[in-house]
Design brief:
The complex is a heterodimer of chains A (about 575) and B (about 675).
Chain A lengths: L8 E6 L2 E6 L4 H7 L23 E7 L17 E3 L4 E2 L9 E4 L3 H16 L15 H9 L17 E2 L4 E3 L9 H8 L6 E4 L6 E4 L11 H6 L5 E3 L12 E6 L8 E7 L2 E7 L12 H4 L15 E4 L2 E4 L2 H12 L7 E5 L5 H14 L3 E4 L19 H6 L8 H12 L4 E5 L10 H6 L2 E6 L11 E4 L8 E4 L4 E5 L12 H11 L9 H11 L8 H4 L4 E2 L12 H14 L3
Chain B lengths: L9 H11 L11 H12 L4 H10 L4 H8 L13 E6 L2 H5 L2 H11 L16 E2 L5 E6 L11 E3 L2 E3 L17 H6 L50 H6 L4 H6 L4 H11 L11 H6 L9 E7 L9 H7 L1 H15 L1 E8 L4 H16 L15 E6 L9 H8 L14 H4 L6 E5 H13 L1 H5 L2 E2 L2 E2 L1 E8 L5 E6 L5 H8 L9 E5 L8 E2 L3 E3 L4 E3 L7 H6 L8 E6 L4 H15 L5 H18 L7 H12 L7 H15 L1 H5 L16 H6 L14 H6 L4
Helix pairs in contact in B: 1-2, 2-3, 3-4, 10-13, 12-13, 13-17, 21-22, 21-24, 22-23, 22-24, 23-24
The chains are: A alpha+beta (about 575), B alpha/beta (about 675).
Chain lengths: ~575, ~675
Amino acid sequence: MPNESQQHMVNVQINGVWRQFPKGTRLIEACEQAGSYVPRYCYHKKLSSPGNCRMCLIEMGMPKMGPDRKPSLGPDGKPEINWMPRPQISCATDVSEGLGVRTHSPMVEECRRGVMEFLLINHPLDCPICDQAGECRLQEFSVEYGRQDSRFFENKVKKPKNVELGPRVTLDDERCILCSRCIRFSKEIAKDDVLGFIDRGSFTTLTAHPGKRLENNYSLNTVDICPVGALTSSDFRFKMRVWFLKETKSFCTSCATGCNTLIGTREDVIYRQTPRENDAVNSCWMCDYGRLNFDYLQSERRLLEPLVREDGGLRPTDWTHALQSVVSLLRPFVGWQIAILASGRMTNEELWLAARLAQSLGVTLIDIVPRTGPGDDILLSPDRNPNTSGARLLHVASESGDILQQIKHAIWSGQVQALISLGENPLHCGIGPELLTRLPVYITMDLLENEATSYASAVLPSLGFAEKRGSIINGKGRLQRLNRAVRGPGQARDDWEIMRDLMQSLGGGNGVYTIEDVFREMSAAVPELSGLTLSRIGDLGVQVMNIDKSPDAPGEPAAEKVRARERQEHPQ
Amino acid sequence: METTLTHVPAELERIMDDAIGHYPAEQKRSASLPLLHLWQEHFGYINEEGVSWIAAKLGLEPINILELVTFYPMFRQAPAGRKHLRVCRTLSCAMAGAYPLMEKLAGLTNIDRDHQGTGLHNPVSVSADGKYSIEFVECLASCGTAPVCMVDDELYENLEAKNAHTLLQPRPSLSSRAQRGTPQATQSGTRQTALPTPNGNALLSHPAPHPLERRLIFQNIGRENYTIDLDCYVRNGGYAQLRKAITMSRADIVNEVKTSGLRGRGGAGFPCGVKWSFIKPNEPKPVYLICNADESEPGTFKDRYIIHQDPHQLLEGMLISCWALNVHTAYIYLRGEFPEGAKILQRAIEEARAHNLLGKNILGTGFDVEIYIHRGAGAYICGEETGLIESLEGKRAYPRIKPPYFPAVLGLYMCPTIVNNVETLCHVKHIIAMGGAEYAKIGRPNNTGTRIVCVSGDVVRPGYFEIEVGALTMGQVINEMAGGPKPGRKIKAVIPGGSSAKVLRSGERFKLKDREVSLEEIPMDFDSLAAAGSMAGSGGIIVMDDSRDMLWALNNINEFYAHESCGQCTPCREGSLWMKKITQRMLDGGGVTQDPATLKNVADNIAGKTICAFGEACAWPTQSFLEKFPNEFATRAKKPVPPPLPPEYTPNELITEETIPTVPLAHDPGWEKAGAAGMI
């Protein structure tokens, strides 16, 4: 990315003030940067610009040319502007030298009032039960440009309602303002040209082709970009008024891409995840799989208290007793008799402590469990572990997974007598019941009860991605930060605290009191992280490694290509 | 290819493959409309299978095809009757009795016509026995012979309700007539009509040009013994100008066209030579020429006659233009309602090819050029050049935003493209014949040449007249050429350039550059009509006499635009139907006092705010009718406005006022009184 000062800058007058913008900036973006937000419905910066909603009409002017074909200058030494008599859309024009814009002139306001009225005449007034209420652009701009009374005495156009466009998206055609964002997203980003308009004029109706469904893995992004309540998430629909939601900046941990998110919660319940823009990671999008993958945190099977095997059965206990039990279970063994099954889902801090724990126990058999699935060329990475990069950087993961194989053999041969699994189910990585029953000691730290927990000597309930803080390095080497959106259930504890306490109980006393301390310790030892703190990671993350594995952030290619072509072929 | 239940005959698929070959290999989507036409011609309608089959054939998603089937009104998703009747309901036909005709037809065929429809399309209503189906359609571009009706592919003109039954009588098929040796099509466009039509042929009412006419383009139209074949055209000097043009340099031809001052005859009146000069001489990308033959502006019916009676003139004009602009592929975007025209043009193309005037190495010049016909399917918006390009690319005819998509830069397939009207392209031939400077002497400065004006509505002799631009006045055209108002009637209003042009009122005074004139005195040229507050547009003059209700006329026009709005951008999509709903309600007796003001404001909120000029086209009639005939609207808007629920507070009050006095409830539920009486 070239530095702004190196790019060619052009002078633009916005509402009387001259400002500089890099060449190629969309006018609508320039206005926004200048503090004059231009309302819009169809324009989305990551999609092509059809210019159809007409909400972004502004007054535009070009520099007045003198007889010498040079701009004639006013008393202030700046070019005088020839204002065009007709309003122009600001979403399809790039800034150019000497361009003048008025975003709040009487003509502009009149245009906006007109468009608002047109959009509302056939729009149902069902805001009280509309999921979009509270984050609806129609509502938002109605405040500024709406009429208080209606002069529309006619019957509204009737269109289909409650249409199941696909397994995850519901459509109300009467609410649709035909901005075509969803159609363009499907075509340009999701590469699944399944939506379209049928009929014509005022009767134009958004639809999927009969027998086809909007079911691609990116379908819910159409709900995000729908400026009104036409497309709603079938999962979130009617569950919660959005103004009650607390939004926490986080990122998705369902694959190595780490799409940036907002987690919407109320009273420690997660209601939805939506993508948060980060051009270095996910543009404005995320996949449906990742987005909806939070229900397990609210599962009936959550482990709510520590369990210790006593008299042949797992009994609930308190943390002090549980940790003491674990320590006494591990005491009889030396390092080569213990194996640790760590996880690519753990944060860097947890991995760091797992490595430290292994070190203090003298354990060398430590590895993560690879987790793969089909990827795509959009966002979904075939590596479904969010932090394989961190695990490699912190030497917890073996490059080729050979240590995992050694662990299996060592359990089989009887060399390993104690297995500690950290957020992984050994049954899912080839360590079957016959191996687990061979182990005198099996300690597991996990979120959910599963078949493997029944073999455990001790079970330590821990927290999920939305319940804790910590950092993770995505498949492209970007360090990102999880923020706590909800409190963990029951007595479940933050993973890093559990490990810290274990280490202390095992005799490795240290001065780690907060997760910041863990990060500090880690960043002092790992050159890639040096100079960083948790807070310095920021909301958009920091590039710490150069890995080129997960797909490019989508959005730029299509829209940028269109714009580059327009610029090249129609220089302004 | 997906397997389908419907058997697509090999021959049909071969024709389809042939149609696909008319477009660049990577632009197969362009063949969507041709394939839909072929499917519908073969199977009668386009079912879901057809949509999927065509999509698969063109490598598209089915939704891409469904979007088209539902956009273009000529495509049907259900079978029509064995005889399908399309009655034109637009202004000139409606004035001439299209509605009584439709009622009569509905009675005769025993069809209970769905008046409302399901919204968009005028519904196709089929008789119970499946023998007939009837449908109202928008302008069929034969306003001079109104009212008209298409029975399957044939046009019947000057109809009367009392003779409606003749439309239903069995007729020999076109092919059997062809075997009888009448190669000419039987549409009104051709002089020779082998069959009796219910009311003769309107063209015979002007067998010879009117003395005030100056014929260049229409030299051969309506001419006795003039036939559409190439031999006849050549005998009359045809293709001599093409032979001359190929001896000239491209720049010279463009300069001649520039010198001629020719302005586009489609509606906007843009200087043709200037448009052509946007094409760089050394353009690396292919350059396309598109002939806009989507004639559909209500009141306009000139291109129809060129296409049906003098197709080679159009081809010659196009071939010269192709040579001048270095175009190797040109398309004629022909409106779907000219099926005979398509056949005539196709035959003309084949004849031209046989004479090496078209195809590879034409006339030994080493220059290759192909002309293909691309049929539309009933959408007015395809007359807008960027909408036309989208349609030609196989999409819904959504006009493009300008900037950046100026056709001369980013046109068809994102290549430089020139879109010219049929009549404009014909003029090119005459400019080559006369030389630009000589041509420019015809007409008036900045308003050169001849142009065809089409007169319809309340005149004695409606029809087409080719006049020297600016040499005649409106009065001469209406009163002398078109025979003036009907006996006992006076002219009340004139729409001078197609239905979107602003209406002019009789008795009004118009300020021109140098003088003030009456309606009859307005010179028929671009600049004078613009100065009079309207436009020369497409040359379609619709005359309304004092028997006409202006509200009724405006409602008819509003219905046209509401039906034809493509629906892409907000103001036009929502506003055009709203205006129609208001005028319809007023017409039905429900007009409220604020209707005229609302109508005007809605129109103002459309004009100038849309992607394409359709915004103006649909707003100007409302704006001008209200301005010119305020009383007619006021008397129909007398009911009080239904009382709206009073807003309790204005948003401004809520935001800015610190305290807001409590508004007493309109109906005190009794609590206050009860409270005051100490009862609660």
